[in-house]
Predict the 3D structure of the following.
Amino acid sequence: MFEPRELSPPVEVVRESQAPEATVFDCERDFETLPPALAEDLGLVVDALEPASYPASWLPDDAPTLLARYASSDLTIGMPGDGSIVWTRQTEPPVVLVKPRVEGTPEPFLNFLLAEAFVELGLEVPEHFIGFFEDTYADLDRAVDLDPNGTYQVAAALFDGWVGLQTREVFADWHAENPELADAWQDAGTRLEERVSGLPRAVARGETDFADATELACAAIKHAIELPAPFAALDTDAYRDHGPEYAVRWAEKTFDSLAE
């Protein structure tokens, strides 16, 4: 199931500087959440498994089943919305898992995704949004006027945006230290700019729902793209500094405005 992956020289430089203890494996099967039996198989290629768990009281009663399982003591690796590359600190050493779906991804962008995983590991940000929101997730659930899956998507996006406020500072340094990865980071951002600038019109016309718009806008934060309202309020030092409390207040104000 897990085969060691050789890294390109630019990515190896990032691994050595940001997360030198991390190991990287290609996975035989695609997944959103790694099936429990296969997650346990990681024990064959790492030194130890240490499942994360969170208080059930942090979750609303109608939380998606997968989120409740993630918060439990089960070893849960990977969640919906995590993308093609997943990292976890529930193993010792931490691992980065590359899913088969990356096949066909342009090599420069794939290298960026791998390097991004090492940067996130190095910054020691939480592995999932529940570790970011903690008990304020219930407040976010009350603020977001969507079904449980929509709330999950908004929470994941807000967490991604908060992480992006920190990772982009590392990415910006690549222009001098690792120009190949800097070019890939910048190119990915350029491809997002038109879609992001058109988000308010797309939402107003019903072409994009609010959860999808939030996901796209927050994904753009790591690329230092100018965001339209109401998402521009997330691209701030205040959000970076105050994290979940700021996110909840943003959601309250935004959904109050949408209801008017």
